[in-house]
Design goal:
binds zinc ion; 16 strands; nine-stranded mixed β-sheet; three-stranded antiparallel β-sheet
């Protein structure tokens, strides 16, 4: 029997607001434990939460960017569960009336475009961080993260492969980064993903029992964990077994998912409206103001890059996947308006350099104007492309300009006809047998002569001039 996977993703994005969702504590990452807390986020009796307006602004940005319908009135609820990282004994979240519903984004995976619908986006507070000592029966809690604002983006189960899940996540991350509402850092946990995975007989419309996968803190893990889970479920069903609804943890060391606990149902949490918070009412003006403030989003920018700069769709996709990378490209173009060469240098040497060093584009060691200066030297014929690659490496390792490196190492391409003519004559004088053979019809020897001249000029002779002069001299 053939099976098809049905996958839905729940993404938690930590919003980059200055302060927490219901109090004025800082959200800065990396502070000493428990230094960014107050009676509100510590859950002391008698305190009252006050909603941070920026959290609503940021959430509206995401909701509008993904085509969601905004609820003019939404509500906060208490999600009850006890765990020491949450001192109140409940998490404030949105349940029955979320702020946004019924959106979607377009992705491309497995060689075809498709749309993944978004069921809902809601706001909630994060919990603290619990660390267990592996050597002693001691656990420590850091409540700095308690009350940091999150949005949860819940997709419909429209995803049918691990690759499509990866593409959806990447696109979602690109959007939150374009919007400037979340830094999208999976490793630091500011962009987290849980995956609900089930399989069903090909072509059937029912849903199989699903498992929830956690601990997916890189795009690669998301794809590998889903792939593994699909195969595990297939094996269980083929052996006549049944899938158990549960939460499973991805173990990157073994490349397997392992059972963590039985999956809770919504009713286990005893949700009820938070009596301390009024319903959130959003008027049309507020929505319009946010809509007008939205930046150009990745899909629109990609289309514009193809139309305005004549770039291939592939280049446009790579360059616009990240807002800063697209900005870098456009900054280069300001100084050197030749889109395709600029794209080649960014996608090749620059991204190669950044990926190798794990450096974000914002910290690129070569600024756009400096790269443009290098490309101008190539364009004017002052240096060859081969030399330019070396100059590029040297620029990355120092803070020297392209012109300074070229001058310092006398790397300028020799285009002076007189100088090259002398070398050509010398090469021909030293190789009389080859000259005779060439004149006798072995024209393939041209490559040999060009090579000799280039060698004698340390690769700095303009190849076009060399060819012209050789042809003239050998005629
Ligand atoms: Zn606080």
């Amino acid at each position: 029997m053939e099976f098809e996977p049905v996958i839905g993703l729940e993404v938690h994005a930590q919003l980059k607001t200055q302060t927490k969702i219901f109090c004025g504590c800082s959200t800065q990452f990396g502070a000493a434990p428990n230094t960014q807390t107050c009676p509100v986020c510590l859950g002391m009796p008698g305190v009252l939460p006050v909603l941070n307006r920026s959290v609503v602004d940021f959430t509206l940005r995401m909701a509008l960017a993904t085509g969601c319908t905004i609820s003019r009135e939404s509500r906060f609820a208490r999600k009850n569960y006890f765990y020491p990282d949450l001192p109140k004994g409940y998490q404030i979240s949105q349940y029955e009336l979320p702020i946004a519903e019924h959106g979607g984004i377009d992705i491309e995976a497995d060689g075809r475009p498709r749309r993944v619908r978004i069921r809902r986006i809601h706001m909630e507070e994060d919990a603290g961080k619990l660390t267990h000592d592996p050597h002693r029966p001691v656990s420590r809690v850091d409540l700095n993260r308690t009350g940091v604002p999150l949005i949860e983006i819940v997709s419909e189960p429209d995803i049918d492969s691990a690759a499509a899940a990866g593409a959806y996540l990447r696109q979602l991350r690109s959007i939150v980064r374009y919007l400037g509402i979340c830094d999208g850092n999976l490793e630091e946990g500011s962009f987290r993903c849980d995956a609900n995975v089930s399989i069903r007989p090909q072509g059937s419309s029912g849903l199989g029992t699903r498992t929830e996968l956690k601990n997916l803190n890189s795009f690669r893990f998301v794809e590998k964990a889903i792939e593994h889970e699909i195969n595990r479920q297939k094996e269980v069903l083929m052996d006549g077994g049944a899938i158990v609804q549960e939460t499973r943890l991805w173990d990157p060391a073994t490349g397997r998912t392992v059972s963590m606990r039985g999956k809770e149902e919504a009713h286990d949490y005893r949700y009820f409206p938070d009596p301390d918070l009024l319903p959130l009412v959003i008027d049309a003006d507020w929505i319009e103001a946010v809509r007008r403030s939205l930046p150009e989003l990745p899909d629109a920018r990609r289309v514009r890059f193809v139309e305005q700069y004549g770039l291939p769709d592939y280049d446009a996709g790579v360059l616009t996947s990240d807002r800063e990378l697209a900005d870098y490209f456009e900054a280069c173009l300001k100084a050197f308006p030749q889109p395709k060469p600029v794209s080649n240098w960014i996608m090749g040497p620059l991204l190669g350099l950044l990926n190798a060093g794990g450096i974000p584009i914002e910290q690129a060691p070569i600024l756009p104007a400096a790269l443009a200066d290098l490309l101008k030297l190539v364009d004017s014929g002052a240096i060859s492309v081969k030399t330019a690659k070396n100059v590029f490496d040297e620029m990355a390792a120092s803070d020297k300009t392209a012109a300074a490196i070229v001058a310092e190492k006398s790397l300028s391409q020799i285009s002076d006809t007189g100088a090259i003519e002398a070398v050509v004559q010398d090469v021909l004088d030293r190789n009389p047998k080859e000259v005779a053979a060439y004149r006798g019809g072995k024209t393939k020897l041209m490559g040999f002569f060009v090579g000799e001249v280039m060698k004698a000029t340390r690769g700095q002779a303009n190849p076009k001039t060399v060819n012209e002069l050789l042809r003239k001299a050998l005629f």
